[in-house]
TrEMBL record:
Ca(2+) 3 binds at A295, T298. This is Annexin. GO terms for molecular function: calcium ion binding; calcium-dependent phospholipid binding; phosphatidylserine binding. The keyword Cell inner membrane does not apply. Belongs to the annexin family. Keywords: Annexin, Calcium, Calcium/phospholipid-binding, Metal-binding, Repeat. Ca(2+) 1 binds at G25, G27, E67. Gene3D superfamilies: Annexin (1.10.220.10). Ca(2+) 2 binds at I253, R255, G257, D297. Signal peptide: none annotated. The lineage of its organism: Eukaryota, Viridiplantae, Streptophyta, Embryophyta, Tracheophyta. It comes from Pyrus ussuriensis x Pyrus communis. GO terms for cellular component: cytoplasm; plasma membrane. It holds the Pfam family Annexin.
Length: 313
């Protein structure tokens, strides 16, 4: 369930005009920008950008970039992009970071539907003139590279069919490889990158039932290396991405100095999808509404914009 609220009446031309007024003259009217863009879905935002360009021969994104600053500007910029284009930008930023932020790549590759992941790969190629897998391969090495490239190039079956016999046999394959500490075994990467999510759920359930421990717990033993941690993130994202995102938010807010990148990423990418469900998981886990935690940890227009996307006026 989405947290985004949109009005019954919508006019892209009226919104474009209002945004133009908000950006003209002395000082920017940030509240007007939030009240408009914070209540428009992806299709409406696309229409507003088109209407703005037709009316004023100017890209609304570039105008907003020049008018806004800091975390607020970054959040608005990412919000206004088409979802596939936004994920392409997030992937590119993650790849270019020192050491590659593989969690972001894993989120995109495992949580999106096969069609949405394919759209991100197309958007990435249009924007950066390289393929996503090409850039990933150039900025990662070894087992991490093998895993991430396999995940982003996969096109999983997206239906509900389950092969129970296969689930049991692949649960045993995973268990044997992990027991032998062969975490980089080709079979682990093959299973996690090619099987459908419903099939993997059955496999993970067999693993837990047959071996009396969840697969994700076995991967986080003391001294786990980066590759084990990456496998753990893959399994968490495939198994229950709402619980995974709750933990990302919790870590972003609780750390010494807020992780605004992570906070923005989750709220902006999930507001039109399932942020209401993630908020419920957050409340159950922390006994504090997510809006309260965000309000306490952020300030100014950035805070107001995030709270708007969270559905709080």
């Amino acid at each position: 369930m989405a947290t985004l609220t949109v009005p019954d009446h919508f006019s892209s031309n009226e919104d474009a005009e209002a945004l133009r007024k908000a950006c003209k003259g002395w000082g920017t009217d940030e509240k007007a920008i939030i009240s408009i863009l914070g209540h428009r879905n992806a299709a409406q935002r696309k229409q507003i950008r088109l209407a703005y360009e037709q009316s004023y021969q100017e890209d609304l994104l570039k105008r907003l970039e020049s008018e806004l600053s800091g975390d607020f500007e970054k959040a608005v910029y990412r919000w206004i992009l088409d979802p596939a284009d936004r994920d392409a930008v997030l992937a590119h930023v993650a790849i270019k970071k020192s050491g590659c932020n593989y969690n972001v790549i894993i989120e995109i590759a495992t949580i999106l539907s096969p069609e949405d992941l394919f759209a991100v790969r197309k958007a990435y190629q249009v924007r950066y003139k390289h393929s996503l897998e090409e850039d990933l391969a150039a900025h990662t090495t070894g087992d991490i590279r093998k895993l991430l490239v396999a995940l982003v190039t996969a096109y999983r079956y997206d239906g509900g069919e389950i092969n129970a016999k296969l689930a049991k046999s692949e649960a045993d394959i995973l268990h044997d490889a992990i027991k032998d500490k062969a975490f980089n075994h080709d079979e682990i990467i093959r299973i996690l990158s090619t099987r459908s999510k419903t099939q993997l759920m059955a496999t993970f359930n067999h693993y837990r039932d047959d071996h009396k421990i969840s697969i994700s717990k076995t991967l986080l033993e003391e001294g786990a290396d980066d590759f084990q941690k990456a496998l753990h993130v893959v399994i968490r994202c495939l198994n229950d991405h709402k619980k995974y995102f709750e933990k990302v938010l919790r870590n972003a807010i609780r750390r010494l100095g807020t992780d605004e990148d992570a906070l923005t990423r989750v709220i902006v990418t999930r507001a039109e999808r399932d942020l209401k469900d993630i908020k419920e998981v957050y409340y159950k886990k922390n006994s504090v509404p997510l809006e309260h935690a965000v309000a306490k940890d952020t300030s100014g227009d950035y805070k107001d914009f995030l709270l708007t996307l969270l559905g709080k006026e």
